[in-house]
Prior knowledge:
Elements: E1 2-6, H1 9-26, E2 31-34, H2 41-54, E3 62-65, E4 67-69, H3 80-87, E5 99-100, H4 109-122, E6 128-131, E7 153-156, H5 159-165, E8 178-181, H6 184-188, E9 192-197, H7 203-211, E10 229-234, H8 244-252
Parallel strand pairs: 1-10, 2-3, 2-6, 3-5, 6-9, 9-10
Antiparallel strand pairs: 4-8, 7-8
The structure holds 2-amino-2-deoxy-6-O-phosphono-alpha-D-glucopyranose (GLP).
Residues 35-39, 66-67, 132-134, 140-141, 161, 165 line the site of 2-amino-2-deoxy-6-O-phosphono-alpha-D-glucopyranose (GLP).
Amino acid sequence: MEVVILADHQAIGAVAADAVESLITRKPTAVLGLATGSSPLPVYDELARRHAHDGLQFAQAHGFALDEYVGLPPGHPESYREVIRREFTSRIDIRPENVHGPDGSAEDIPGACLSYEEAIRTAGGIDLQLLGVGTDGHIGFNEPGSSLASRTRIKTLIEQTRRDNARFFDSIDDVPHHVVTQGLGTIMDARHVVLIATGAQKACAVHDFVEGPVAAVCAASILQLHPHATILIDEAAASKLKLADYYRYTFDNKPVWQGL
Length: 260
Ligand code: GLP
């Protein structure tokens, strides 16, 4: 796990966009794992800018969303499929048919989850998975207690997550209780995981998953077992880390050839 502490969300967006650009340049057919929430927005903005101004191409790339609400009608502005389209994929040249998301409105949810896992495998697996983290340490929608080996499945949201996400809806009553999410095992199969967290409200979760024990009660802690996990955080999100100075020193003195 590499922890990189950067000045602000713009700097984080640029570093994460560098990782995506380097991947897509050496592998134009790359499979991107796409997250929602506020954390990845600076990355999407920067990639859209590079597409428009520097000719960065996504024409052969594939995208797989991490998660989806259950019960929102297709096309609902807060469905994650729609958020990813609006915030990212409609701003680049990725083909709409190459962008996939778990189907939260399927009649057969377990069947749709199996198909989603199969679609990821058929595409060759996820090369780079973008992630945010919930205040309770969730990644995707893997709430505390999620099996560390879980695959795509239905989950029930914890009340705190519904409160955190209520800002995207008219009222908390409109936030669904159920979701479909890639499992922790699914996320762990990605070749490179890039997690972004900013702001003091994430400091406890960041401390717990980076420096606490690997435990289902803090789902993101499974990333300690990932061979290539990059954690991009700002100073506020880093404020509870015991080894912050060491992470800064390591990044500042990293051989350039290592990349991210
Ligand atoms: C939601 C999403 C997660 C995201 C989390 C944090 O619960 N399912 O993928 O990481 O929100 O969101 P934000 O980045 O807005 O803090």
